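Input structure tokens:
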């Protein structure tokens, strides 16, 4: 959805010369967190490297995977597909992307990702081919539809290896969260290698994504917001958009018609969900949070995400407070988005690039894209990423008697440790290494440094 701007505003946006940053822009909001010297480090063990020799020689076992969901959900499943292929010592066939039932997107792997780069990057880890060899094309693969959640490498081997050796081909579907988050160190490193190195977007996406980034950065730093205010998000989370009774009723009616869409806890009221931090922030809440965190009024903001329920009306609080407010439709020149039209995955990839490249990133709600970008930015040197502390802050948002200055101070203090600082994944069980790459995928060679 393009939010209309004046012609002059658009012309200025496409003028790429760098100008001095106004004093307001030099506020602490743009300061980056201390990365404590952590750098990417994917040093695989000698045992892993020795095993690679035999794995890469094998021509008897092939893994075919069908991945589903939106682009970022597909990314997660592709990462785990590579790791499963490695566990089984199998050749991976380039993953098949299931047609997305919500958006009707028929994009293939090669439309979204650079296939040859994917193969080259993983050449020392897993053999990747574009299709099954002719002698396997007519064979009936062993199909597994019901892999349990969070399985171990031992489970994978005991369940599939003998059948795979016998049949030659294994077909897996629905890999979302099937593989354990806690794997041996080498396999965690492989996850990082796939997520941060192998899964590069296709050249046309990278080219336009970088152009949009340049247009945002042409006049200094910018903030990227991932806004989750689409109709389906409000329905799935059991939350309300906070616009008017008309829109609340639309959500109530949709949820009544399709109760199976509700993914949040069905026994909780909307108010309880809100206070528990389970609801996306709406535009007014995002605006108040940014103001409390010191975002200057002239901050340039790129917003990623689908069309919000309520259209422009839903975004008015943000647009009023921060007039330099753009999405990819605003930034693109006439015709530049034509080849991506009606392809939600390609549009999401453009959002990903501009968001990952930003000086500051903030999602309004958790989710696959927010988590992926958080991990990518950590791996890139802990670029500032604001994680809204919804559970602790929302009671203050609902307290209308709190003076603004006091509110701002409380909210600012609540987020001192939520700005993208290094966090050790293993300090809490079940964390994804592609969201928290320390300690398996990043190393600090200096002594005496401490992280959360």
């Amino acid at each position: 959805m393009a939010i209309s701007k004046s012609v002059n505003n658009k012309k200025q946006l496409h003028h790429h010369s760098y100008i001095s940053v106004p004093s307001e822009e030099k506020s602490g909001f743009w300061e980056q967190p201390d990365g404590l010297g952590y750098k990417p480090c994917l040093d695989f063990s000698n045992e892993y490297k020795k095993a690679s020799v035999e794995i890469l020689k094998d021509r008897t076992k092939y893994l075919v995977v069908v991945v589903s969901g939106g682009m970022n959900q597909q990314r997660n499943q592709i990462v785990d597909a590579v790791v499963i292929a490695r566990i089984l010592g199998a050749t991976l066939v380039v993953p098949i992307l299931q047609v997305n039932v919500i958006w009707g997107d028929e994009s293939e792997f090669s439309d979204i990702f650079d296939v040859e780069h994917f193969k080259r990057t993983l050449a020392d880890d897993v053999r990747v081919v574009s299709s099954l060899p002719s002698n396997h094309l007519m064979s009936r693969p062993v199909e597994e539809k019901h892999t349990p959640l969070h399985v171990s490498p031992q489970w994978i081997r005991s369940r599939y290896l003998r059948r795979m050796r016998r049949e030659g081909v294994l077909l897996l579907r629905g890999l979302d969260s099937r593989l354990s988050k806690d794997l041996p160190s080498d396999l965690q490193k492989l996850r990082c290698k796939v997520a941060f190195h192998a899964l590069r977007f296709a050249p046309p996406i990278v080219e336009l994504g970088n152009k949009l980034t340049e247009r945002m950065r042409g006049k200094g730093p910018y903030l990227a917001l991932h806004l989750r205010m689409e109709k389906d998000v409000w329905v799935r989370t059991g939350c309300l958009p906070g616009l008017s009774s008309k829109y609340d009723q639309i959500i109530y009616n949709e949820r009544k018609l399709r109760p199976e869409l509700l993914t949040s806890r069905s026994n909780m009221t909307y108010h309880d969900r809100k206070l528990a931090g389970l609801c996306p922030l709406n535009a007014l809440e995002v605006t108040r949070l940014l103001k409390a965190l010191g975002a200057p009024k002239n901050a340039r903001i790129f917003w990623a995400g689908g069309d919000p329920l309520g259209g422009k009306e839903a975004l008015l609080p943000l647009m009023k407070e921060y007039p330099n407010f753009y999405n990819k439709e605003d930034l693109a020149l006439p015709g530049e988005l034509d080849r991506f039209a009606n392809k939600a995955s390609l549009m999401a990839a453009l959002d990903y690039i501009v968001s990952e490249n930003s000086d500051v990133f903030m999602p309004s709600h958790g989710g696959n894209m927010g988590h992926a970008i958080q991990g990518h930015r950590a791996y890139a040197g802990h670029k500032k990423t604001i994680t809204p502390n919804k559970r602790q802050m929302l009671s203050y948002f609902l307290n209308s008697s709190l003076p603004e200055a006091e509110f701002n101070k409380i909210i600012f203090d609540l987020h001192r440790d939520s700005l993208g600082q290094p966090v050790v994944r293993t300090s809490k069980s079940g964390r994804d290494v592609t969201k928290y790459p320390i300690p398996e995928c990043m190393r600090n060679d200096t002594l005496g440094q401490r992280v959360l």
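The two ends are 39 Å apart (CA to CA). DSSP finds 19 helices and 13 strands in the chain.
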